[in-house]
Amino acid sequence: MKIFAHRGLSGFYPENTMLSFKKCINLDLYGIELDVQKTKDNHLVVIHDEKVDRTFNSTSYVKNMTLKELKSLNSSFNGYENNPECKIPTLKEVLILFKPTKFIINIELKNNKINYKNLEEDVVNLIKELKMERRVIISSFKMKSVKKIKKICPKLKTAYLISEKFYKLRIKNLIFYKMVSNKCSFANPSFVLIDKQFIKKCHGRDLEVLSYTVNNIENYQKLSNLKCDGIFTDYPNIFSTINK
Ligand code: G3P
Q: I want to staple 139 with a disulfide (CB 3.0 to 4.6 A). Which of 59, 159, 184, 203 is the partner?
């Protein structure tokens, strides 16, 4: 199974920070996952929520702050408030960190609630500038974005994120049809959606399945038995040791 560190080693360190990513480097992993948004002054930054208040000491939206303002925030993770490696990183800083490694980086475009102008173009340009086209997977809950990425850079691999809520409300066959017609390489569903049927539908369409967020052994074992291709986990150190 491909093991991805979800937001870095986020079960132990502040998520989506250089510290949580650096802690993954010596682990036997396939890759890491991170979330990208845009600042007020148009920089690509790595943070999950649209508002900074869950993880940092402010209540503002990412889109309303400049990079300098965001960089001045301190982590609210107990014990890491003053750690200089626990600031909000730029996407470029994280990609440069992993460039000399073999890690694959799953970049989630965090644009399902806020429509960041040119997010897809800016992410693709940065990947091209760093010559990391073969090292990334771009995912989004927005099919329009997944489609756009493939249009502007066909050699990039894409993944469509599928939440439990979304899957239950939609016509299933249409989701699979769209993933194929928009040339996705991966389906990234919530682990609760995975059963024999789901895997069969994906593998029959040449889609690999990477499931989020798998944090306990029973779920890992179940997915492994079902031949799921990979998982995103907050505890990659635990799963990398039992993974075959
Ligand atoms: O990319 C996998 C997973 O992180 C997707 O869900 O809500 O954490 O962005 P979410």
A: 159
Of the residues 5, 6, 39, 97, only one is catalytic, namely 6
Please tell me the distance from the alpha carbon of residue 24 to that of residue 186, in angstroms, as a whole number: 23
Q: Whose Cα sits closest to atom 5 in ligand 1?
A: 212
Distance 212 CA to ligand 1 centre (A): 7
Note the pTM of the prediction, 2 decimals.
Answer: 0.97
Which atom of ligand 1 is nearest the CA belonging to 110? 9
Domains of the chain: 2-242 (3.20.20.190)
Q: What is the DSSP string of 156-201?
A: SEEEEEE-HHHHHHS-HHHHHHHHHHTT-SEEEEBGGG--HHHHHH
Per the CB < 8 A criterion, the answer to whether 6 and 33 are in contact is yes
**The residue type at 195:** D
Tell me how far the alpha carbon of residue 34 lies from the centroid of ligand 1, in angstroms. Answer: 9
Specify the pairing of strand 44-46 against strand 31-38.
antiparallel
